[in-house]
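User: Predict Type I-B CRISPR-associated protein Cas7/Csh2's structure from this.
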Amino acid sequence: MSNTKSREFLLIWDSTMSNPNGDMLNENRPRQDEITGQLEASDVRVKRFAREEWINKGENVLVQTVEEKGKIQTCQKRVETIQKSAKIKDDDIEKYLTDNYIDVKLFGAVITKPKRDILGPLQVAWSKSVHEAQIKFMQGNAAYASSEGKSQASIWTKYISPYALFKTYAVYNNLVAKKQNINVEDKDIESFIEALIDGMKHYRSTSKNQMPRLLVEVIYNNSKLDGELDYIDIIKDVEDEELRNIDQVQIDLSKLSIYYDLKKDDIEKIVIYTHPSVKLLNIDDRFELKTI
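Assistant:
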């Protein structure tokens, strides 16, 4: 049974000259709130950073792209393959997956056959940029022609955002783990933190260029969670759409100290993981500081 204490996370990360999370239904433009101009990133996108890092480190990960005879496996086929290989009965598949696959243990999974909905004890919310961000349409010449017989190279097109600074909230609820008999240990939470931070650093592509800047972890003595943990102020030196670099902002932790004072009987400790480039204001001596 899980004895790992409930905790909340607030991650500050940025994306530079890239597409933080493309919307396939809208020409793969960066997801954006049409009213506020803030960019958005789904929980799936953020969890993928951790999953990619776990895969690279040799951890068992259920939710990943697996090809079989030139075709991508469905969720049902992926589970069937695992069941057959490990000789697991339908009634035992849920426990087998939560015991052996780190992403299922923490994030949960929806399995189509046998039908299982595993509610993971660690949930990640949708992210939003803390400012209105620009979106630019880019074009360029590709190295190859679009088809045989063409005399000119084809033209590539893409949408990018010059810069966006995001906040991401996540929560680990020990009561959810206990209710589902998921045995989460402290090392699993440590693995998540490491995979999330390192995954953001290591995952690079023509559309992805992000960096973790600050991670706040609040560990509770009980399960009296806050529910949003939005006690960090971002102070910008320029107007929203002029923001281009982490050097142009300061991160103020004063509200986090006030929150700690209000709930210090419920809080075991607060850990701040920070990137060297971040300008921090009002650092509380009671917080434990670590470097990203």
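The CA atoms of residues 54 and 66 lie 15 Å apart.
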